[in-house]
Amino acid sequence: MILDEKHKEFRKMVKEFADKEVALRAKELDMNSEFPWDFIKRMAELELLALYVPKEYGGAGLDVLSYAIAVEEIGRVCGSTGIFLAAHSSLGVYPVYHSGTEEQKQKYLIPMARGEKIGSFGLTEPNAGSDAAGTQTTAKLVGDKYIVNGTKRFITSGGVADIIVFTATKDPSLGYAGISAFIVEKGTPGFSPGKEEDKLGLRGSITSELVFEDCALPKDNLLGKEGEGFKVFMGTLDGGRISIGALALGIAQGALDASVKFVKENKKSGRLMKKMQSIQSRIAEMATEVEAARLLIYQAAMLKDNDLPFTKESAMAKYYASTIGTKACDMAITIHGMLGLTNEYPVERFLRDEKLMEIGEGTSEIQKIVIAREILGK
Amino acid sequence: MIQFNDEQKMIQNEVRKFAQSELEPITSEIDKKSTFPADIVKKLSELGLSSLIIPEKYGGADLDTTSLCIAVEELAKVSASVSLILAVNNCLVAYPIMKYGSEQTKEQYLGQLSKGDMGGYVVETGFESSERKIEHEEKQGVISIAGSFDFVLNGEAAKFIILPVKTENGRILYIHDKNPEDSLSKHRILGMRAAGIVGLKFRSISLPNDKCLAVPQESEQVFQDIQNYSDIIFSAISLGIAEAAYDAALNYSKERRQFGRAICEFPMVQEMLINMKTKITASRFLVYDTAAKADMEQEYSLNGHIARLFVSKTAVSCGLDAIQVHGGYGYIKEYPVERHMRDAKTMQLLNATPVDLESVLAKELL
User: Is the domain A120-227 a CATH 2.40.110.10 member?
Assistant: First the structure.
């Protein structure tokens, strides 16, 4: 894919940050389950945290394509730092930018965009995963306050976030129509992050429960209109898919890069690995699929940048990139043989990190439903 | 059709009962902490499982290959690490000694194994970067080596280790009694974390002739034979892991409700379950058909390679699909499926990778 000079320059800048800083600590973050506070500070300095948000709101004033490139480049070396960036930008920043009032933008968007505050998004619940309309968390208007009760689960950055956009319903029996979106700040009485998950991968990112117990929120914390929470989260997820797809792409590229390096440097049973057809075949397959995924991701990003419909394309991009990504990571370990099982090489981490991309922000099964609906009609 | 005789059925029942009552409660913890489950292994040894194929004459249980497959399959359904420990003791340690050891060697080492000692086996990665770590020299007919091996199966608990030594004339297979100067290093590996797979670093050790299992003239054929035999048993471990992943996915899909119904009612979930079950069914035939051939002393190497290639791949895809069926819950350690996936991927690469197997298979076919 041919990028213009502006995007090429931008990629170069992020790549340098990724290779010279993030890559050096990626193994450590994974091993020690350490949250990348230092990189968040650096990403704020480099203006990576709200790339497509206008400068007046603290963003970089760039576009979605730049954002996809940034997530890809960081994901290439560290999935945990990549998922932080994706969650903060797409799930924390975006809904406030897109659906917030001017006042909300001033209060919440600007500090998130500048990296002074960490953003997160609470949609998933213990019993409402793919079925987001099954939201059980309730927000009932009592006087001039919403009283929120319920529990969210699997919330990326939930335990460390300062500002969280979340969904709740005024009545679970109403389905989508009952759901509204709200903003809650860390430290609000009645709200606390619950336990953290012990995960297969992305171990440097924090995934937590959010617990609401008679949490009273002022009316001003409603994001968008009452009963339009569905619209807010569908719009958020459409865009979020591009970033999860970009992260899947980045990790797959990382697995490919590691494999190429390994193959060029090693002999197997006396033969140069790069001369072995069984290895060539695998490298060729990985490289082709990674390239195809990149085209799909960039296409979806460019559609969004041009205000064209991109629901189908972003679902396709996320579905494809995560599917071939898991396959590429699996293959990368096979190429490394037993050495690939140890954390002396990054490929086993890549597989553990990559598997989430087929699950988070809509499973592959949900993506297929979205794609089919776009093609076949409702 | 897979048919087990009464004795084999009894073994299946016993091991299954043991796995559920004794192993199930600790399986997640030993994985998380990467601890070698010494107590459990001791109990399993007392039941005869660590010396299952060793002839009675040397104190073993004297059972057949099918029985060994049954035992490791049942154990792997609950703890792949524990299954691997016992599999290695039988197929990579006892087997080469039974087949290639002198009478004296057999009496000594098979006797030790039958008493419950563990034996280790060095697996070579085949990569030059690993191989460069060993130096050997020969003085007055005695070979000594110094350096390190990256992977010793059962290395943590082993009293002695079977290891390959490269010489100008070819490889030699030796038994090395572990000594206090050997230093072990624990890897952090993707899966099989409780199986005691370690790196071994040793100062100059001399390898006297009476500890030699195979000399260069015959060693390639010997290595291949050991590889062939372990293919059957390792396939049975992968089979057990695949079944565990499938069972977990099936149960979860019946319990988990989304959109007002159990997710097992959705065709996309059904498709994953069907794919898993189909491959598992084929895998069981491959494993037990090959084991039966070995028991009847028929040529089995081709079937063994096919089994290993297919079943190990099946286990990886079942592990990944089982996570997918579980969604977010599949990604956390509260559920067993992420471990099944890690164990399956690890199992796929131990001793022979798909790339190695494809090349061996191609040679046999052509």
Answer: yes
Nearest to B347 by CA among B199, B236, B272, B248: B236
Please report the ipTM that was assigned to this predicted complex: 0.96
Please name the fold of domain B121-217: Butyryl-CoA Dehydrogenase, subunit A; domain 2 (2.40.110)
For domain B6-118, the CATH superfamily is: Acyl-CoA dehydrogenase/oxidase, N-terminal domain (1.10.540.10)
Of A84, A85, A79, A74, the C-alpha closest to A13 is A74
What is the residue extent of each domain of chain B? 6-118, 121-217, 218-365
Interface residue B359 vs chain A (CB under 8 A): yes
Chain A residues touching B341 at Cβ < 8 A: 200, 355
CA distance B93 to chain A (A): 20
Please compute, for residue A107, the number of CA atoms within 13 A of its CA located in the half-sphere on the CB side. 13
CA distance A160 to A87: 12
Q: Count how many pairs of residues, chain A against chain B, have C-beta atoms within 8 Å.
A: 124
Residues B209-267: tens digit of each pLDDT: 888 888 888 889 999 999 999 999 999 999 999 999 999 999 999 999 999 999 999 99
Residues B113 and B50 sit within 8 Å (Cβ to Cβ): yes
The pTM for the full model equals 0.97
- A28 is an active site residue: no
A154-200 pLDDT per residue, tens: 999 999 999 999 999 999 999 899 999 999 999 999 999 999 999 99
Q: How far is A133 from chain B (nearest CA, A)?
A: 8
Please answer whether residues A77 and A350 qualify as being in contact, where contact means their C-beta atoms are separated by less than 8 angstroms.
no
